[in-house]
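Sample intake sheet
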Amino acid sequence: MMMFKVMPGSPRTSGAMTNEAYVWQRSSSAAVSDAVVSAPEKMGGLAPLGAEIAWRDATADVAWPELDFAALRRAGRTVSAVLRVGPRTPTPAAGETVCAIAREMLARFRAGGVEPWEIQVDFDCAESKLDGYRAWLASLRAMAAPLPVRPTVLPSWLDRPAFAALARECGGYILQVHATERPRIDAQETALCEASRARVWVERAGRIGVPFRVALPTYTYLVAFAPDGKLLDIMAEGKTRTWPAGTVMRAFRPDAAELATVVADWMKDRPACLTGLLWYRLPVATDELNWRWPTLEAVMAGRPPRRGLRVEKSGTSPVDIALVNAGEAEEPLPAEIIATGAGGGADADGIGGYRAEMRGADVVFQRAPEFAAAHLAPGARHPLGWVRTETEIQLHVR
């Protein structure tokens, strides 16, 4: 286990932390509304995306997500209004525009009967421009008072001289420890969020002495690379698209068991100014690139999700074969499932991304290469084929 040097006099604490979840969908749907209303009690707060600014030269192009304010009211949780700001040099003129949009965002929440307890600002500011961003935040605080304004910050800011003053003036911030670097074609699957680095960053933030929460990932993102490794696109939600021949698709996802261990360790001992966790993003039934609730609830409790992948058969002629995930963690589709004892006269076929092949008296169901990144959600069932035989078969997962 990695050991950390604790600075003399650095206050420490233990115990439970608050849990909140981002609601980041741009379009409202029944599934999103249901997820907002039915979130477990342990998810004490929700942070819906309220507005997103993209810049066209000096002009702000604002997207207003469709928010179900009635669902937010029924949920009965604390609500943070999140403003996402695209890349831009933080000039005073641009700051005035950001303030005006934030003011309208607050008005929309209040018109919907939802009173936010804070504004969060998600702006990937260049490290060399933090003084300009600090001025933006000061204007936002003056506009929103008495509501606090909390910025989402990157780990690379922590050692910059301008950051400590920015953090103290804001009175708190959210430290994002996922998706901190540009994806690489040769990176590990867990490069989205490496637990060891998150631990180091939290200790570093703790030495600043300003209250903060940590933003942790629940999502998978798919990255398309050209054969030479050039990044083509990143997809974290929505429909996939068709790519040219030779495109390399990689899936990057958090390791639920590792993050559960990190959470458990923080509940035992952490910097006193680490007060809570923000999960990106709220589980929604139709969101295929995100954890389901069984996974997230286990990790929130500091417990590695229980594994429970099994292969089942039903029927007699033919015998239908399916994968079932009875555990709490999403599971990768196995590379091979072997049906032994089928006999030389057996007939078989694969479905759902598997093809059947006879190997002597066995039938081998092989996963197609394009399904290598596919995972089976907790509670899900995945048919993979059938075998027609007069003998009893045994199933084995490889």
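Comment: The first strand starts at residue 12 and ends at 13. Residues 158 and 205 are 7 Å apart (CA to CA).
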